[in-house]
Design brief:
single chain; alpha/beta; Rossmann fold; Four Helix Bundle (Hemerythrin (Met), subunit A); four-stranded antiparallel sheet; 16 helices; 15 strands; 14% strand; binds zinc ion
Length: 493
């Protein structure tokens, strides 16, 4: 009997604003679509958090015994600057600035995306479709929406008629907006605007002569609208109605709202049963943004090559840090928080590594079965990973008490404990037992800290041959010391 029959999962549905019993459309099968990255730059750490939340959800659904088809796309065309209707295509712009073929940009950043996700120990999705590979499907949906009267063509572009749609449907139901308010709060259309209403969005945009990413269509050469890509790819691989649609909170409006409108206009019914939204990651209490410098790339965290953190953090530690927050909560990343997660991670791995040698007795005074169910209860409550990790540390506490001889465990319970720990830690949270840096990272940092202190003392005593020797020999070992206003930090090259 599959686990999902005993473990009753509830998920928070953004569409209804309620935690609901999870009942997939087809028993035993789950279709899940998550909006993937627009591959025009290195993957943002905040996006990594979103994708990691859905990786954990994918892992848990699989663990429960569902056959999951997980589709996460690659946006390689049609996503315009500032998510605006008249901006430049993000990939075309990057290609123009760097004098590359747009598909070179796509290839470079798709590879970067995959390599970072691999370091974070993500499972690959079942299908990873690209927007440019589904132009024909997008044109077919546009034709269908035009036929149903919910779109209009003007000067080689096709726009979705939001007002017409709202007469029979509810535009704004996902984000909790009302069309009247949106109309009241938007500026008037300017003379060069060709849309009927400011709320209308492009399904197909005419390509001006200088636009390099273009495809033929019944309305002339052009390119698809960003919102439409996800509707085309999710419908193709998961059907007109599927179970879970996920993405970052920032995509709720307009992107996901538009996906609902397109699907309802073309198929006459709602596309998704459960809408799940992951919350954002801040850095030192502020929004992450390249423009303000309050930003860090995943590889910069792993190597320590940055000015924000005091030392390198292993991908498994960063993953553990992210898993210690609920996916719907805002999470703030800081040196202190990462350092605390690293200690926790090491404590957890130490306990796991000591399980085999744990002494057994005739009886247990630790109820492993109840503890294990508490772990499942946490996950069944809308994937509550912070509650799960708290329960894992409860397990660690018992392991340490047994080690000290203050509690006992039977052989059968010990086997059960080991199996459950491994399921929660490796299979569901997706952590890895990374010996190389993280396990010893604390010790390594302390040793380097000691060397930095000795070097400072040597410098204070004007013993420069010793201070240079420390710096140079560390550099030879691939450890770079950096002297800054805040003192000396290090990075691993
Ligand atoms: Zn999308």
């Amino acid at each position: 009997m599959p686990l999902y029959q005993n473990q009753k999962l509830k998920v928070y549905n953004s569409l209804t604003g309620k935690k609901e019993d999870f009942k997939p459309l087809n028993e035993g099968h789950v279709g899940m679509y998550v909006c993937g990255p627009t591959v025009y730059s290195n993957v943002h750490l905040g996006n990594c958090r979103t994708f990691m939340s859905f990786d954990m959800i994918f892992r848990y659904l699989k663990h429960l015994g569902y056959k999951v088809r997980y589709v996460r796309n690659i946006t390689d065309a049609g996503h315009l600057e500032n998510d605006a209707e008249d901006g430049e295509d993000k990939i075309a712009k990057k290609a123009r600035l760097e004098q590359l073929e747009p598909m070179e940009v796509v290839q470079r950043y798709t590879l970067d995306f995959h390599s970072i996700l691999e370091k974070f120990n993500f499972l690959p999705p079942s299908i990873e479709p690209t927007a440019t590979g589904h132009i024909i499907e997008q044109i077919e949906i546009i034709k269908n929406i035009l036929e149903k009267g919910y779109a209009y063509e003007i000067n080689g572009s096709v726009y979705f008629d939001v007002e017409k749609f709202n007469e029979t449907n509810d535009y704004g139901k996902l984000s909790g907006r009302k069309l009247e308010d949106m109309i009241a709060n938007t500026r008037e259309l300017t003379a060069q605007d060709e849309k009927k209403n400011p709320q209308d969005f492009a399904l197909w945009k005419k390509a001006e002569s200088q636009h390099i990413m273009r495809w033929p269509s019944p309305w002339g050469d052009g390119f698809p609208g960003w919102h439409l890509e996800c509707t085309a790819m999710s419908t193709k691989y998961l059907g007109e109605t599927f179970d879970i649609h996920g993405g970052g909170m920032d995509l709720k409006f307009p992107h996901h709202e538009c996906e609902i409108a397109q699907a309802e206009a073309s198929n006459g019914h709602a596309p998704v049963k459960y809408w799940l939204h992951a919350n954002m990651l801040t850095l030192n209490g502020k929004k992450m943004a390249k423009s303000t410098g309050n930003n860090i790339l995943p590889n910069e965290m792993f190597s320590g090559e940055n000015t924000i953190l005091s030392k390198p953090y292993a991908p498994a530690v960063v993953r553990f840090f992210m898993m210690q927050a609920h996916y719907t909560s805002i999470l703030d990343l800081s040196d202190e928080a990462l350092s605390a997660s690293e200690k926790g991670y090491n404590k957890l791995m130490d306990a796991l590594n000591s399980l085999d040698k744990l002494p057994t007795a005739a009886t247990s005074n630790f109820d492993v079965e109840a503890w294990k169910q508490k772990g499942y209860d946490a996950m069944n409550d809308d994937f509550n990973t912070p509650m799960l990790t708290a329960n894992l540390f409860e397990g660690v506490k018992h392991i340490n008490l047994i080690k000290e001889g203050r509690e006992t465990i039977s052989k059968a319970d010990k086997d059960l404990l080991k199996e459950a720990m491994q399921v929660f830690v490796f299979e569901i949270l997706g952590l890895e037992n990374q010996d190389s840096i993280s396990q010893n990272s604390d010790k390594l940092s302390n040793v380097i800290g000691l060397l930095i202190q000795l070097r400072n003392e040597a410098r204070a005593n004007k013993d420069f041959s010793t201070s240079d020797k420390i710096r140079d020999q560390l550099a030879e070992m691939g450890i770079q010391l950096k002297d800054g206003k805040e003192g000396t930090t290090f990075s691993l090259s």
